[in-house]
Amino acid sequence: MATPNFRPKTTLEQWRILQAVVDYGGYARAAEALNKSQSSMNHAVAKLQQSLGVKLLKVVGRKAELTATGEVMLRRSRQLTVLVTELEQLALNLKQGWEPEIKLAVEMAFDRKQLLPVLREFQLHSRGSRLIIEDTVLTGSVEAIVEQTADIVITHQLPRGIVGEPLSNYQMHLVVAASHPLAQLPQPVSPDQLSQYLQIVIRDTARKPVEAEGWLKAEQRWTVNNFTEALHLVEAGIGFCWLPPFVTSTADELVELTLAGSSRREGGMYLVLPKDEKTGPCARLLYDMLVSELTNMSASSIRT
């Protein structure tokens, strides 16, 4: 970190001129490209070297070439000029109402791999805005919508009066380790049989959670923060849990239980703009990209 009294000896323009001399292979072509006189280019590079006290260029025949020191300094200078360009672009974006940060809240039961193509493309158009991706569970998703703490929400629950764009369905399977006593019982198992064993549940992310979903009658319950922790406990034979197929697909020696009257939990996912017309342009861009990709994916899965 620079000290408060630090004063740069060089200018950004000098570094840009050095870059141009190297990129265009000499002072003459660089001067023509930048619409400057060759003498001013020579003077700028000479001043840069004098200020730094190091040799950046050497003349070989009629061509200026970088010294070993010059190669290092040029590489770092490119990072500097890119950073300044991005900084100025960010200022322009903010002036135009472009958000410096947006939040995407995603229900944990949604397979994140579906987001990757969109996020890869969005990164190219985000103009430096930061993206926060937040896991939500159960009423935590509803809370993010009602309290507008996120710009975009992917949820399986729609609060009253809120509309959402339908996405692909989700599924939750009831699973235990093959070594677990429940796996040895005749199927389907009854709710009474299930209630005698430890259930692993995922913590509701709401500040005031409402336990209104899922099978929660087990006397013994352990609560974890995510599916990965839950899967580890299930694989160890410690308890049973409702988990989505994208989590269990790579797990070894798991058994899917059949519960009398409810062997699986499933439903639709929705894409929601909690702030509606107050949504900023960056969040709106990501939303439109998600709609285009994920609704097409949903339609494709229905056709097949």
Structure write-up:
The protein is α/β, with parallel strands linked by helices. It has two domains: 12-95, Winged helix-like DNA-binding domain superfamily/Winged helix DNA-binding domain (Arc Repressor Mutant, subunit A), CATH 1.10.10; 100-304, D-Maltodextrin-Binding Protein, domain 2, CATH 3.40.190. The protein has eleven helices and eleven strands. It has helices at residues 12-23, 27-34, 38-52, 68-95, 116-125, 139-146, 181-184, 191-194, 227-235, 245-248, 281-303, and strands at residues 57-60, 63-66, 101-107, 130-136, 152-155, 165-177, 199-202, 221-224, 241-243, 254-256, 264-272. The strands form three sheets. Strands 3, 4, 5, 6, 9, 10 and 11 form a seven-stranded mixed β-sheet that branches. It has a two-stranded antiparallel ribbon with strand order 1-2. α1 (12-23) crosses α2 (27-34) and α1 (12-23) crosses α4. Mean pLDDT is 86; it is low at 299-304. It comes from Pseudidiomarina halophila. This is LysR family transcriptional regulator. Belongs to the LysR transcriptional regulatory family.
Compact summary:
It comes from Pseudidiomarina halophila. The protein has 304 residues and is of the alpha/beta class.
Low-confidence stretches: 299-304
Distance between the termini: 57 Å
Major sheet attributes = 7 strands, mixed
Which outline best applies? elongated
Give average pLDDT, whole number.
86
Secondary structure: number of strands: 11
Protein structure class? alpha/beta
CATH architecture of the largest domain: 3-Layer(aba) Sandwich
Name the helix and strand elements from N-terminus to C-terminus, one letter apiece: HHHEEHEHEHEEHHEEHEHEEH
> How much of the sequence is in beta strands?
15-25%
Count of individual domains: 2
CATH topology of the largest domain: D-Maltodextrin-Binding Protein, domain 2
Helix content: 40-55%
The radius of gyration is 29 Å
Q: What is the top-level CATH class of the largest domain?
A: Alpha Beta
Q: Count every helix, treating DSSP H or I runs of 4 or more residues as helices.
A: 11
GO molecular function: DNA-binding transcription factor activity; transcription cis-regulatory region binding
Pfam family, one: LysR_substrate
Protein name: LysR family transcriptional regulator
Family: Belongs to the LysR transcriptional regulatory family.
